[in-house]
Write a structure and sequence with these properties.
CATH superfamily of chain A: Survival protein SurE-like phosphatase/nucleotidase
Structural class of chain A: alpha/beta
Shape of chain A: globular
Number of strands of chain A: 11
Distance between the termini of chain A: 66 Å
Number of helices of chain A: 7
Radius of gyration of chain A: 21 Å
Strand content of chain A: 25-35%
CATH topology of chain A: Stationary-phase Survival Protein Sure Homolog, Chain: A
Oligomer: homodimer
Number of domains of chain A: 1
CATH class of chain A: Alpha Beta
């Protein structure tokens, strides 16, 4: 399937096979190795780590020539990774998985909602060195050319040095002055929250419906080691994210919940809330 | 909206408003406080932390009487939490969020794919003490009665003691001998993987389609402090999960990726893979 002298690289995204960002990754990864693509057949942004098992999925081949194999699929980004693992990798993992380039930021808490990031997480779960790439420019015709050499740098680094087991990289590109990018900074995810607002409208049949909108609230706008701050300084940020999420500290503090018997609560009284 | 002398509890799930599990939670939480429910209008299992912003959502009121307010929604479990935050909580968070009871295990790595768990994660992100409840019995008519007193114990504990900021509980109930449950154990998530297989079929129009199936592989079947092992011993498991996933150790080991200049790779040679 692939030329054994070159790295084998798997590519997916969540904006769909037609998005500009994934084609930049295909071009850049084809300089490094043999490439396989399975991407959603349409935009699946905000799908996080969703999988499709209540309905079937379909797979459609685009091309298989000159070390480039391209498919699209009706499922989620994580479905695309799982399909590749089951049907194409033949128990030999690729040397690298890249997801994106997402049209829109996946910095800070956005990483939780992102299908682009989830595809890289699924790669890491399966032992594949994985990187999610996103640009703060969400425009469909965003110009990603300035990021190409950095994509090369990061991809080469991960192929050569690897990543810790169950850790993957969440890379974001700044968008305001791409001619003067300051470099790459490995950093932590900013603490913040996405505050949603549902925009209520009424359809022609007099029924209400809602559009999800919202804004990001940065809890630490001055934190110089956080991705949001570094992106504002025109750095490319690379945040190592882990799959494992057990909070070991809380296991200790919650020991009082351990029980070998049933506790009855019928007599507990609650006071008025303040 | 709610009686101010009783706790205010928000309930959702991913199996949909018609599922048996959520009605057990509604009954049990109504013993403790005033209850608001927004649940998906149909099953949305495996939706993880997905949100809906590319299409509108609709909200439908079922009832609002005697301290119980029930809605369903066309969105994902996380959408349900976000809708409640925006339209119903009026900047006063509930005292508790519970999600479930999921019909099916969300132990180990399943927590990453689960909409039930994601709803609790979204609660924690927003500062609400949150618990996901799941049963290993995925049958639609599963008998959850044996779990009721334990649900009371855990809910009371979390209301009274709280949880660490950005931490929530992922609770799973065993299913094989519910008359002899051994108690509750706070523990860590088992290291393991869900290995997917796509079952290929051909439709009447001679086109291929795929159903996602698979099996769980436990990397540490003898780990006595892990949820899978404890569930096999007939314990109820409560795993504290954290929202934050930056791997701080990797920030240090990846310092060589930091750069203030562009590196050119045109001369890098790869050797044959073994």
């Amino acid at each position: 399937m692939q030329n054994s002298e070159r790295p084998f690289i798997f590519i997916t995204n969540d904006d769909g096979i037609q998005a500009k960002g994934i084609h930049v990754l295909i071009e850049e990864m084809s300089k490094i190795g043999d490439v396989m693509v399975i991407a959603p057949n349409t935009g699946r942004s905000g799908m996080a780590h969703a999988i499709t098992f209540s309905s079937p999925v379909r797979l459609h081949k685009h091309k298989n020539e000159n070390g480039l194999m391209v498919y699209d699929m009706t499922g989620t980004p994580v479905d695309c990774v799982k399909m590749a693992l089951d049907k194409f990798f033949d128990r030999k993992n690729p040397d690298l998985l890249v997801s994106g380039i997402n049209h829109g930021s996946n910095a800070s808490i956005c990483s939780i909602y992102s299908g682009t990031v989830a595809a890289a997480r699924e790669g890491a779960i399966n032992g594949i060195p994985s990187i999610a790439f996103s640009s703060l420019d969400f425009s469909p015709d965003a110009d990603f050319d300035a990021f190409r050499p950095y994509i090369q740098t990061i991809a080469h680094h991960v192929i050569e040095q690897g990543l810790q087991r169950n850790v993957f990289l969440n890379v974001n590109f700044p968008c305001h002055d791409t001619a003067n990018i300051q470099g790459i900074q490995v950093c932590r995810q900013t603490k913040g929250i996405w505050i949603e607002e549902f925009d209520k409208r009424t359809d022609p049949h007099n029924q209400d419906y809602f559009w999800l909108t919202g804004h990001f609230e940065n809890y630490e706008p001055e934190a110089r080691d956080s991705d949001e701050w570094l992106l504002k300084q025109n750095y490319i940020t690379a945040v190592p994210l882990q799959v494992e999420t057990t909070d070991l500290n809380s296991i200790q503090s919650l020991q009082t919940l351990n029980t070998n018997s049933i506790i009855h609560h019928s007599t507990i009284q609650y006071n008025a809330k303040n």
